[in-house]
Design brief:
By secondary structure, the protein is mainly alpha-helical. It is 75% helix and 0% strand. It is built from 17 helices and no strands. Helix 2 runs antiparallel to helix 5, helix 13 packs antiparallel against helix 16 and helix 15 packs antiparallel against helix 16.
Length: 416
């Protein structure tokens, strides 16, 4: 089916420029969204501590939020593939994700704050797989790594601005309540942007000019090997709630500087996602292996270092986040068919979320016993993923992924 045929059917005209406009518009949605929830995330650990929560509780809340948030992606991804109603699922998720954050300004008990933190994570989980699937359709026109990287760079621009705004509120001694309350502004702007995107691009699947036929038999062996690597990375990756808690409790830096360190991580994430996404399109999974190995070094620097090491650790931690949000997703898009894609992203996120939950709980409990053990366990789990990533080097996802051609040319078919 060519672009003219799609246009006759009322679809959005297809082309690289149109695909980039779609990616950028979703990037604007995510920019304001990340200002909201990453601004809040930069202080949720210290805030729970301020309300009387222990390190174990902080670890459980962070892990449970990720578990439910990533677990619900399995259902929302399946629902997106089943119904093709991407926007209905996305809008529902964004509404919960965004507006749970300003409500934190009204809390005075850690139990209520924990419930809102978990609700925010669940909202993010509901909208993520279908958004990623929509992005993957458009990114076929730009290169998967570059398309996801561009979106992530815009996403993380907001993730830098949000924590800086929160840090300013704390520095000016407005307190936690005011810091959460100001985040209602970017929340409203993000919601407005996603509604505009819904009007301008009602059918994201139209970006697939010639979708390959659905193949039976589910996902191939390389996909499940990849899920094993993803689980190990997730289990070892320390949530910033525990990192921020450590920085506060160990007096590594003063409380107003903790959101700034988070902003440093988000800036590192933005740059890494663009650079590594571009390199992934050229060299494949070896880029993921190199980046994941580098990011694993963040944990020893966080828990065993001082103020200077904290800055370097946040740069490395941000690189890891950039990998998870760009290259890790691009790998899945490169090894799955369009008809399976939202489900594939849902499984990816569910696997990562369960692993992150178990890891966060274990690391939170371990922190109350030995900070050294947290650093070593986190590092070891992440490095254990490398052999599994090496196993898929010879698969279609591991080889160089060539950018899909423009409309009118034959598209590169991903492996199922």
């Amino acid at each position: 089916m060519d672009a003219a045929a799609l246009e006759r059917q009322g679809a959005t005209p297809i082309g690289r420029k149109t695909a980039i406009r779609f990616i950028v518009l979703l990037g604007i949605v995510s920019l304001f969204g990340d200002m909201t929830y990453e601004g809040a995330r930069s202080i949720t650990g210290p805030y729970l501590g301020f309300l009387g929560a222990s390190a174990t509780i902080v670890g459980i809340v962070a892990g449970l939020g990720e578990l439910l948030g990533y677990g619900v992606r399995l259902l929302s991804g399946w629902l997106g593939d089943r119904t093709q109603r991407y926007w209905a699922v996305m809008i529902t998720g964004y509404a919960l994700n965004l507006f749970a954050v300003p409500l934190l300004a009204l809390t005075s008990r850690w139990e209520l704050a924990a419930a809102l933190i978990i609700a925010e994570r669940m909202g993010r989980g509901i909208r993520a797989p279908v958004r990623d699937a929509a992005l993957s359709h458009a990114a076929g026109h730009t290169g998967l790594g570059w398309g996801f990287g561009l979106h992530e760079a815009m996403d993380q621009t907001g993730a830098v601005i949000g924590p800086l705004a929160v840090s300013a509120a704390l520095y000016l001694q407005y307190g936690y309540a005011a810091a959460f309350a100001i985040l209602v502004v970017p929340a409203a702007l993000s919601m407005a942007s996603v509604l505009i995107a819904r009007v301008l691009f009602p059918r994201p699947r139209d970006f697939d000019l010639t979708p390959p036929a659905l193949q039976a038999g589910g996902f191939k062996r390389s996909y499940w090997i990849y899920m094993t690597a993803v689980a190990l990375i997730g289990a070892g990756y320390v949530d910033f709630a525990l990192i921020g808690f450590h920085f506060s409790q160990a007096a590594v830096v003063s409380p107003p500087l903790i959101p700034i360190l988070f902003a440093v991580a988000m800036a590192s994430d933005a740059v890494a996602s663009l650079v590594l996404g571009h390199l992934f399109d050229r060299f494949g999974v070896i880029v993921l292996i190199a980046g994941a190995s580098l990011a694993a070094l963040a944990s020893p620097l966080v828990f065993l270092g001082g103020g200077r090491e904290a800055i370097l650790s946040m740069i490395l931690w941000g690189i890891g986040m950039g990998i998870q949000e760009s290259v890790m997703r691009a790998v899945v898009a490169g090894m799955t068919l369009p008809d399976h894609r939202a489900t594939a992203f849902g499984i990816l996120n569910a696997v990562f979320g369960v692993a992150w939950f178990l890891g966060s709980v274990a690391l939170g409990v371990l922190y109350d016993q030995s900070v050294m053990a947290v650093a070593l366990v986190s590092l070891t789990l992440q490095l254990l993923a490398i052999p599994f990533l090496l196993l898929i080097m010879d698969s279609g996802a591991g080889r160089r992924i060539v950018r899909q051609k423009s409309p009118g040319s034959s598209n590169t078919r991903p492996e199922a």
